[in-house]
Specification:
Blueprint: H1 29-34, H2 41-45, H3 56-59, E1 70-73, E2 81-84, E3 87-88, H4 90-101, E4 106-111, E5 120-123, H5 124-141, E6 149-153, H6 158-170, E7 173-176, H7 183-193, E8 197-201, E9 203-206, E10 209-212, H8 214-226, E11 233-237, E12 255-257, H9 258-262, E13 275-276, E14 280-286, E15 294-299, H10 301-313, E16 322-325, H11 332-344, E17 348-352, H12 363-371, E18 375-378, H13 380-389, E19 403-407, H14 413-423, E20 429-433, E21 467-470, E22 484-489, E23 499-500, H15 504-511, E24 529-537, E25 543-548, E26 552-555, E27 558-561, H16 562-569, E28 575-585, E29 589-598, H17 607-618, E30 627-630, H18 644-651, H19 667-682, H20 691-698
Parallel strand pairs: 4-17, 6-7, 6-8, 7-14, 8-11, 11-12, 16-17, 16-18, 18-19, 19-20, 29-30
Antiparallel strand pairs: 1-2, 3-13, 4-5, 9-10, 14-15, 15-23, 21-22, 22-24, 24-25, 26-27, 28-29
Helix pairs in contact: 4-5, 4-6, 4-11, 5-6, 7-8, 10-11, 13-14, 16-17, 18-19
The structure holds ligand 6R9.
Length: about 700
């Protein structure tokens, strides 16, 4: 590692960054007046010299059976332990204590996709009853106990939250696999976690139809068995108790309807098991660019404290709010900011079953109006989609958001402004929250009443989290330098995952080895967390996330971030979504190719030229795309992230790989046909890719 920061050589981590500075936007006075974090003294309380004790403020939001004796134990780096000696139960904290204080208050509002089904308001008292009874099934019928793992493969229904909380009540480690994932993907995760019980549902509504979900359970069990894992019991919730939505028969002695089982456990109560703060609460699998999915293991005390604290200060949740996060509980965002954070604070959280545009692009705003939602949380991809299918829809409804969140990928300033002015009606603050499955909760965000918004930037590190940007050699990239590098977190925080389930070496190698200063040190300062994201930091300390470090296109030695290319494309008014991918080029190494989709009704005439010009103007000639493909829809993951590796493969005539986990696998063939036949006609014939090139394309911007 070199001390010299004035090096004239451009290192690998330094991406040419062409972002323009955006303007600040101040929160409305009405927001500031009521915000949970309105006094700047909070920044002092979480200043670096107060670390790690500053996090007592988060832990004190919870009810502990026993208080911790050590806030942060660093004796076995980087396996940090938070609140050691403390004991608590997550289900008690999310349910019992609110049910005792306020039994009739609504905990969950379940909104079915079909509008003919009335929203189900579940009070804290009712939730407590449901959680107890299902915990009794898990304990007495399934024989589950603290430390066992259970795989959940559930859609967006209130039963998912009940199941998670029932597991937590027993100290059983839940591993929810996103409902949209295949049986195969579920089976792999069953095997990896060593689950003997699978909890699923017969069917659920998506885009207007009742999908058969139970069929995936049978596929999952076959796959798990191939990997040596036998499952003894499959518990099947029924979307409509008493009816069966699946064509797949129930296997006698193995598959059980939950509503049948519950009949034997009416009114049974289960004492919450007092768990060590460091006991695992759940696993959440995330996919990296290579290798098998990583089971991120999250702790009980540190995690719950962290999501409660960040929900309070960053989501500005008050107990009397109706709060709606439109993510899926099958992703970390849903675990932290639909279930655990909001319920720990005793608020009302909305669970919506379906797609945002069913039956039309006004549905979210209609739900918001009906339920009186004040805090709304979603992703750039949903915002772009809703802007595309219903730009005028928000105006038609009389909801009033006070606070809005964006999470999951960088948001283009153009899209941010639509979110702010149209969805938020100029009345709501926005937090752009940067974090990862591994992190438990937010890492980068503005504190909404105290730090102004800046479109496209997530803001500074959150309270008690100290990010830094390093170049490839571990030199700090100074703020305001205009250079990008690898964003790291200098210190541990309570929400950080404990390990990768069953693979501690990979945990260390993926996140800590790169910037570790001394493998023998037990000082956390020697163990920065490497987030695997690229970023820049403006002079004001705000970070702008460029995406995964491998989302970079190197054109003749100029490293271009996909996000800046896409942002430039989005300045063209007709464009709804844009994705940049590399094409192997013998002269320039890589060249940029753009895929764009249009807003409804927008004329496609001349769009290619406009996109090229926008990129040339915003970034430079070097970035000018070889082709701009106008496509009806981008291939996307179920969590809405554009699968750049799929279109990159199309552009390079490489195998598109497994597309079964896509939300819309059907779009791929059409895109492929159009792009490749046009290229052949233009004489842009492919050449054989080398193995390394092939791998680069096949994993370009890989997400899942
Ligand atoms: C919470 C979540 C993590 C990756 C992360 C980064 C990207 C998330 C972002 C963002 C820019 C934001 N990401 N939030 N990029 N701005 N506000 O999304 O977790 O599914 O694990 O994804 O998403 O690249 O590394 P996960």
């Amino acid at each position: 590692m070199t001390e010299n920061q004035e090096t004239t050589e451009v290192s690998e981590a330094q991406i040419a960054v062409h972002w323009r500075e955006e303007e600040y936007i101040q929160p409305p006075a009405s927001f500031v007046a009521q915000a949970n974090a309105a006094d700047p003294a909070i920044l002092e309380r979480f200043a670096e010299d107060k670390f790690p004790e500053c996090f007592h403020e988060y832990a004190d939001l919870l009810t502990w059976d026993e208080r911790w004796h050590t806030t942060l134990d660093t004796s076995n780096p980087p396996f940090w332990k938070w609140f050691v000696g403390g004991k608590l139960n997550a289900s008690y904290n999310c349910v019992d204590r609110h049910a005792q204080a306020n039994p009739d208050k609504t905990a969950i509002i379940f909104v079915a996709e079909l509008e003919s089904e009335e929203p189900d308001h579940i009070s804290y008292g009712e939730l407590l009853r449901r959680v107890n009874e299902f915990a009794a099934v898990l304990r007495d019928f399934c024989g589950l106990k603290a430390g066992d793992r259970v795989t959940l493969h559930l859609p967006m229904v209130s039963e998912l939250a009940v199941t998670m909380l029932a597991c937590a009540r027993l100290g059983v480690i839940h591993s929810q696999v996103f409902g949209g994932f295949s049986g195969h993907a579920c089976g792999t995760r069953i095997a990896d976690s060593g689950s003997h019980v699978l909890i699923t549902m017969d069917g659920y509504y998506r885009a207007g139809s009742l999908l058969d979900h139970k069929e995936k359970a049978d596929q999952a069990l076959e796959q798990a068995a191939r990997q040596g894992q036998e499952v003894d019991k499959v518990l099947v919730w029924r979307r409509h108790p008493g009816q069966y939505a699946s064509a797949i028969p129930m296997a006698a002695g193995r598959d059980f309807f939950v509503d049948d089982l519950l009949a034997d456990y009416r009114g049974v109560t289960v004492e919450p098991v007092s768990m060590d703060a460091t006991a695992p609460l759940f696993l959440m699998y995330t996919s990296g660019t290579t290798g098998r999915p990583k089971g991120c293991q999250h702790s009980t005390g540190g995690y719950l404290a962290y999501v409660a604290g960040t929900s309070k200060y960053y989501q500005d949740i008050h107990p009397d709010d109706v709060y709606w996060c439109m993510a899926d509980i099958g992703w970390i965002t849903g675990h932290s900011y639909i279930v655990y954070g909001p319920l720990a604070l005793g608020t009302t959280t909305v669970i919506y079953e379906g797609v945002p545009n069913y039956p039309d692009g006004g549905r979210p705003w209609k739900i918001a109006e009906q339920l009186g939602v004040r805090i709304f949380h979603t992703s750039p991809t949903s915002i772009r989609m809703l802007r595309k299918v219903g730009p005028e829809e928000p105006k038609k409804y009389t909801y009033h958001f006070r606070h809005m969140t964006t999470v999951g990928e960088p948001i283009e300033p153009e899209v941010w402004r639509w979110y702010h002015s149209e969805v938020g009606k100029g009345e709501a603050v926005i937090v752009d929250t940067w974090w990862q499955t591994e992190n438990g909760g937010f890492l980068g965000s503005t504190l909404p009443a105290l730090q102004p918004m800046k479109p496209g930037s997530c803001g500074p590190g959150v309270l008690g989290v100290y990010p830094v940007i390093y170049d490839e050699d571990g030199n700090e990239v100074p703020k305001g330098s205009g250079r990008a590098g690898n964003i790291c977190i200098r210190n541990p925080w309570p929400g950080i995952f404990q390990t990768i389930w069953g693979d501690p070496e990979r945990f260390v190698a993926t996140y800590y080895t790169k910037y570790n200063k001394d493998p023998n040190s037990t000082d956390w300062r020697d163990w920065p967390y490497f987030a695997n994201d690229g970023a820049t930091q403006a002079a004001d300390g705000y970070f702008r996330i460029l995406g995964r470090v491998d989302d970079v296109i190197n054109v003749a030695g100029h490293r271009l971030g996909t996000k800046e290319l896409e942002s430039a494309a989005l300045t063209v008014p007709e464009i709804a979504e844009a994705a940049a991918v590399p094409v192997i080029d013998d002269i320039r190494g890589r060249i940029v190719e753009m895929y764009v989709s249009l807003k409804p009704g927008a004329a496609s005439e001349g769009v290619e030229a406009k996109v090229s010009l926008a990129i040339e103007t915003e970034i430079g000639k070097i970035a000018r795309p070889k082709n701009v493909w106008v496509v009806p829809d981008m291939p996307k993951t179920r969590s809405g992230k554009i699968m750049r590796r799929v279109i990159a493969s199309v552009s390079n005539f490489a195998d598109v790989g497994d597309v079964t986990t896509l939300a819309n696998p059907e779009v791929v063939e059409g895109i492929k046909h159009r792009v490749q036949s046009t290229k052949v006609a233009k004489g842009e014939l492919p050449r054989q890719l080398s193995e390394a090139e092939y791998e680069e394309i096949a994993k370009f911007g890989a997400e899942s």
